[in-house]
TrEMBL record:
SUPFAM superfamilies: Adenine nucleotide alpha hydrolases-like, ATPase domain of HSP90 chaperone/DNA topoisomerase II/histidine kinase, GAF domain-like, Homodimeric domain of signal transducing histidine kinase. Member of the two-component regulatory system KdpD/KdpE involved in the regulation of the kdp operon. KdpD may function as a membrane-associated protein kinase that phosphorylates KdpE in response to environmental signals. Its main location: membrane. It comes from Humisphaera borealis. This is histidine kinase. It catalyses: ATP + protein L-histidine = ADP + protein N-phospho-L-histidine. It is found in: Membrane. The keyword Lyase does not apply.
Length: 902
C-alpha cells in the first residue's frame, strides 16, 4: 500500500537518512560519462572535464584511460599525471590493467578510470573494474569513469535481441543508480557512422567489421533511445528524491504523468480510454489505480471480474496498474499522486443521487478538495456502457433473514428486560433506552447492516409502545418524546453503520493478513529448499492450500515443451487443450486462461513465472467447482505474487546447480591435469631408467662385470615393479569409483596376509629394519586376502617413500572388540598438521614438494578397500616421531566348523 508523504516524519526514516548522509559525506563522488556506444566521445569529455578540475588546482590522476589510438584524445593526456599500468601475463599476452593499490597509496583528489564495466585479468584484486572504483570511493577519492548503455545488466538481453550481439561485460544497475552524477554524451547516429568511416574510432579493418554487425544505423538509433530513456529515468528518480529530502508535498510538473481511477463501474472503460488519449497527447506515462476499501469486501463476483477486466484493459493500452488499500479512496489516490509526481488525475462523475452524496460524501469531491495543484479531469461515462468482459446474469441479492429474526428476538429480549425495571422499579425511560441501544450494537456486530437497521426501527417502535404514555399506542402525550425517538433512531443507525464499517475493516485486514501470511510462509519455506522438485512441490502445496483449487506447476524440458513438475491433485495428468494454453503462456510471457481476454474458455488460469533471465515456467490454477468464478482481481494478484516468488526460488536453485556444475568441471579439470601430470612423470621416470639400463646391457655387455650387470638387471626389475604398481593403483581406483571392485571375503588368518605383503616388497625393504608384532592367537577374519594385502602393500610402500632410507618400519596386529586392528608405523618426519584426514584423498600428497614419486592414489585405494570391508582407516603422528596408519577389520559371524574326520 502506498501512503505518500506522511503528515508527520517517521523517526526511523529520519535516522536512516542521517546515517546515509554521513556515509555519503565520507565516501568519494562518482561521475559517469554515459553514452550509447563507443566513439561518442565519453573519454574525450571525461579528460576535458578533468583538465578543467586540474586547472582549478585539484589533484587529478589519470588511473586508466583508453585513447584507442585517437589523436584528439591522446592530446588531452599531455601534461597530466598518469598512473603506470599494472602489467599482467595471461595466455602468452601482456595485459595492461588499472593499478588500484597504487592509486589508493597515491590518494589523489580525483582519479580518472575509463571503461567502468571492464573485466579485470585473473589475479587482480577484483574481477571487475567497478569493484576497484568502489574501493576508491570508500577511501574518499572522487572518480570519473565512462560507461555505454549496453553494459547495464538489466538491458543486456534487450541489446542482444536488437543487435544480435551478446555483450559479455556488464555491471549491476545499482552502480549506475548510486552514481552521484551521470553526464550523457550524445551525438547523432549519422555522425558516429561518419567517424567510423573516417577511421577516427577504430582501425579501418576493425571499423569495417563493426559497421557491418554492431554499429548499424538501426542499432545505433535503438541504443541511443535506450541511453536517453535511462538518463531520463535517473533524472526523474533524482527529482523524486530531492522532493522527499526537502519535504516537498506539492507536485513538480517537470514532466506530465496521468493517473486514472477505476473501479467496478462500467464507466471505467471510458475513463481508461480517455486517460490513454490524454497521456498519448501529452506524451506522458500513465497509471491505472484501483483502491480497495473496507466496502470492497461486499463486492459481488461480477464487480470483481469487472475490476479485473478494467485493470487488464489498462495494461493492454500501456498503463502501469496498481491496487491501493486504505480507508478513503480520496486519501489514497491523492497520496499516491503526490508521492509519484502525478500531474493529472482522471476520475468519473458520480452517478448516485445528490442526497446520498450530501449524507455520505463523494469521493470525487474529496479528491478535488485534496488535490491542490494537481489537475483533475472529471469525465462522465454511460452507465450502461458495456465492458469487454463476459456477460453475466443479474445479481440476485440475498436477504439476511437470520439477521432480521435475530433483530426481532433481541428487541423482544430488551423489552422483556426493561418492562419490570420501568413499571415495577421505576427506572427512567432514558435508562431503558440504553438496553435497546445495546441490543442494536449486538445485532450490528453479529449480522448485516440491514439487520441492524431493522433492529433500530423495531427498538423505537417497542420503546414507544411499552415505555411512553399512553402505553400500547403510537400516540404520545409529551411531544419531547418525538425528539427522543428521532435521536434514538439516529443513534442506533450510526452505531449500526460504524459497527458494520469496523466489521468490514476487520474482514479486509484479515484478508490482507491471510495473503501476507501465505506469502511469508511460502518465502520462508522456499528459502530452505535447494532442489527444483522441492521448490515446485512447496509452491503448489501453498497455493492449493490457500485457494482451495487444483494447482499445477509446469517447467520446460530440453525441447522447451512444458511438462507438469508438480500437481496438487497428485495425478500429473493434464488435458492436451490445457497444455496448449500453458505453452502459449510460456512462449508469449503473458497471463491467459479462465477469466482473461486470452483463451478464456480454458479450465484454469495460467500465470508465467518471470525471472531475471526470462520466463522459466508456468503456474496454473484450475477451480475445483465448474460453477465457481472467482479467479479475478485479488486472487489473481495473489497467484502472480506466488508465481514471482517461486520463479525467484527456481532461478536461485538453477544458479546453484550451475555453480555446482561449474565447480565440478573445474575440479574435474584439476584432477585430470593432476592425473596426466603425475602419470606422465611416474611412467616416464621408470621407463627412462629401464631404457638406460637395457641400453647399457646391450651396448656394453662384454665390458660389464657380474655385479654391474646384476645391478642393471635389478634396476630394470625394480622400475618395472614400480610401473606395475602405478598401473595397478590406477585400475583399482577406477574399479572402486565404478563400484566394480568386488571383495571376495573368506575366513583367513591375518598373519599370512601380512607375511605375503612383506614378501612382495622384499626388494623395496632392502636395508630397512622391519619389525612385526602380531598376536599369536588372532582369530580368523572374513577378508578378501588380495584386497587387504593391497592395503598393507600401499601403507608400507607409503612408509618407504616418505621416510629416510634405512629408517625402521613396524607392523602390528592385535585383536580388539569386534575385530582386528592393524598398524603400520614409521620413524619419518610425520604428517603435516591438518593433513591427517586429507592424506586419504585422491591425488593428495602431504610432502608433494619433497617427494617426486607417486601420484597420491595408494592411500585412497587403501581407504576404499578397508571401507568395503566395513572397517575404518586413520592416520596420526606418533609422540616419539613418525606417522602411524591404523585400520580395523570387523569380524561378523563365526567361521565354519571343519570336520577333522573327513
Amino acid at each position: 500500500m502506498t501512503t505518500g508523504f506522511p503528515s508527520r516524519p517517521d523517526p526511523d526514516a529520519l535516522l536512516a537518512e542521517v546515517q546515509q548522509q554521513e556515509v555519503r559525506q565520507r565516501r568519494g563522488k562518482l561521475k559517469i560519462f554515459f553514452g550509447m556506444a563507443a566513439g561518442v566521445g565519453k573519454t574525450y569529455a571525461m579528460l576535458e572535464e578533468a583538465r578543467k578540475r586540474a586547472a582549478e588546482g585539484l589533484n587529478v590522476l589519470v588511473g586508466y584511460a583508453e585513447p584507442h589510438i585517437r589523436p584528439d584524445t591522446e592530446a588531452l593526456l599531455l601534461g597530466m599525471e598518469i598512473l603506470p599500468y599494472k602489467l599482467v601475463e595471461y595466455r602468452n599476452a601482456t595485459l595492461k590493467e588499472f593499478d588500484v593499490d597504487a592509486a589508493l597509496a597515491r590518494k589523489p583528489s580525483l582519479v580518472l578510470v575509463d571503461e567502468l564495466a571492464h573485466s579485470n585479468a585473473p589475479g587482480m584484486r577484483h574481477a571487475k573494474r567497478w569493484q576497484d572504483i568502489s574501493d576508491l570511493l570508500d577511501a574518499g577519492i572522487n572518480v570519473y569513469s565512462t560507461l555505454n548503455v549496453q553494459h547495464i545488466e538489466s538491458v543486456n538481453d534487450i541489446v542482444e535481441r536488437i543487435t544480435g550481439v551478446r555483450v559479455r561485460e556488464t555491471l549491476p544497475d545499482a552502480v549506475l543508480e548510486q552514481a552521484d552524477e551521470v553526464e550523457l554524451v550524445d551525438i547523432a547516429p549519422e555522425e558516429l557512422l561518419e567517424r567510423f568511416r573516417e577511421g577516427r574510432i577504430y582501425r579501418p579493418e576493425q571499423a569495417e567489421r563493426a559497421a557491418k554487425h554492431f554499429f548499424t544505423k538501426g542499432n545505433l538509433i535503438a541504443l541511443r533511445e535506450m541511453a536517453l530513456r535511462t538518463t531520463a529515468q535517473r533524472v526523474d528518480a533524482q527529482m523524486l528524491e530531492a522532493r522527499r529530502e526537502a519535504g516537498v508535498r506539492t507536485t513538480w510538473p517537470a514532466s506530465e504523468r496521468v493517473l486514472v481511477c477505476i473501479g467496478p463501474s462500467p464507466m471505467s472503460v471510458r475513463l481508461i480510454r480517455s486517460a490513454k488519449r490524454l497521456a498519448a497527447g501529452l506524451k506522458a506515462g500513465w497509471v491505472a489505480a484501483y483502491v480497495e476499501t473496507p466496502s470492497s469486501t461486499r463486492l459481488t463476483d461480477i464487480d470483481r471480474k469487472r475490476i479485473d477486466v478494467n485493470l487488464r484493459m489498462a495494461e493492454e493500452l500501456g498503463a502501469q496498474t496498481i491496487t491501493l488499500s486504505g480507508q478513503s479512496i480520496a486519501d489514497e489516490v491523492v497520496a499516491y499522486a503526490r508521492a509519484h509526481n502525478v500531474t493529472k488525475i482522471v476520475i468519473g462523475k458520480p452517478l448516485r443521487p445528490r442526497w446520498r452524496e450530501v449524507l455520505f460524501g463523494s469521493a470525487v469531491d474529496d479528491v478535488i478538495r485534496r488535490s491542490g495543484e494537481i489537475d483533475i479531469y472529471v469525465i462522465r461515462g454511460d452507465a450502461d456502457e458495456p465492458t469487454s468482459g463476459p456477460s453475466q446474469p443479474p445479481v440476485q441479492r440475498r436477504h439476511d433473514w437470520a439477521g432480521f429474526a435475530s433483530a426481532a428476538a433481541v428487541m423482544a429480549v430488551a423489552s422483556l428486560a426493561g418492562w419490570p425495571l420501568h413499571h415495577w422499579f421505576g427506572l427512567a425511560n432514558a435508562n431503558v433506552l440504553m438496553l435497546y441501544l445495546l441490543g442494536v450494537l449486538w445485532i450490528a456486530t453479529h449480522h448485516s447492516r440491514a439487520a441492524a437497521v431493522v433492529g433500530s426501527v423495531l427498538g423505537v417502535v417497542a420503546f414507544d409502545l411499552l415505555f411512553v404514555p399512553p402505553y400500547y399506542q403510537f400516540a404520545v402525550d409529551d411531544r419531547q418524546y418525538i425528539v427522543t425517538f428521532l435521536v434514538m433512531l439516529l443513534t442506533a443507525l450510526v452505531i449500526s453503520a460504524l459497527t458494520a464499517r469496523v466489521r468490514a475493516q476487520g474482514d479486509a485486514a484479515r484478508q490482507r493478513e491471510r495473503r501476507t501470511s501465505a506469502l511469508f510462509a511460502l518465502s520462508r519455506e522456499l528459502a530452505s529448499l535447494r532442489t527444483t522438485d522441492e521448490i515446485a512441490s512447496a509452491a503448489v502445496r501453498h497455493i492449493s492450500k490457500l485457494l482451495g483449487d487444483r494447482t499445477v506447476l509446469l517447467l520446460p524440458e530440453a525441447d522447451r515443451r512444458l511438462a507438469v513438475k508438480a500437481d496438487s491433485a497428485g495425478t500429473g495428468v493434464f488435458d492436451i487443450k490445457e497444455s496448449g494454453v500453458t505453452q502459449w503462456v510460456f512462449e508469449h510471457e503473458q497471463i491467459a486462461g479462465k477469466d482473461t481476454a486470452t483463451l478464456p474458455a480454458s479450465a484454469g488460469l495460467y500465470v508465467p513465472m518471470r525471472a531475471s533471465r526470462g520466463t522459466i515456467g508456468v503456474v496454473g490454477v484450475l477451480p475445483s467447482d465448474d460453477l465457481r468464478s472467482d479467479l479475478a482481481s485479488d486472487r489473481r494478484q495473489l497467484i502472480e505474487a506466488f508465481a514471482a516468488q517461486t520463479a525467484t526460488a527456481l532461478e536461485r536453485a538453477a544458479l546453484a546447480d550451475e555453480a555446482r556444475q561449474a565447480w565440478e568441471r573445474v575440479e574435474a579439470e584439476f584432477l585430470r591435469n593432476t592425473l596426466l601430470s603425475g602419470v606422465s612423470h611416474e611412467l616416464r621416470t621408470p621407463l627412462a631408467a629401464i631404457t638406460g639400463a637395457a641400453t647399457a646391457l646391450v651396448e656394453t655387455h662384454a665390458k660389464l662385470d657380474g655385479p654391474s650387470q646384476r645391478q642393471m638387471l635389478d634396476t630394470v626389475i625394480g622400475e618395472a615393479d614400480r610401473m606395475d604398481r602405478l598401473i595397478t593403483n590406477l585400475l583399482d581406483m577406477t574399479r572402486l569409483e565404478a563400484g566394480g571392485l568386488v571383495m571376495k571375503r573368506e575366513w583367513q588368518p591375518v598373519q599370512e596376509v601380512i607375511g605375503s605383503s612383506l614378501r612382495q616388497l622384499d626388494r623395496r625393504l632392502l636395508g630397512r629394519q622391519v619389525t612385526t608384532d602380531v598376536e599369536t592367537d588372532l582369530p580368523l577374519a572374513p577378508i578378501d586376502s588380495v584386497g587387504i594385502e593391497q592395503v598393507l602393500v600401499n601403507l608400507i610402500d607409503n612408509a618407504i617413500e616418505y621416510t629416510p632410507a634405512g629408517s625402521p618400519i613396524r607392523v602390528t596386529a592385535n585383536a580388539i572388540e569386534g575385530g582386528i586392528a592393524i598398524e603400520v608405523a614409521d620413524s619419518g618426519p610425520g604428517l603435516p598438521i591438518g593433513t591427517e584426514t586429507r592424506v586419504f584423498d585422491k591425488f593428495f600428497r602431504a610432502h608433494a614438494v619433497d617427494a617426486p614419486r607417486g601420484i597420491g592414489l595408494g592411500l585412497a585405494i587403501a581407504r576404499g578397500i578397508v571401507e568395503a570391508h566395513g572397517g575404518r582407516i586413520s592416520a596420526a603422528n606418533r609422540p616419539e616421531g613418525g606417522a602411524v596408519f591404523r585400520f580395523t577389520i570387523p569380524i561378523v559371524g563365526t567361521p565354519p566348523v571343519v570336520d577333522a574326520s573327513q
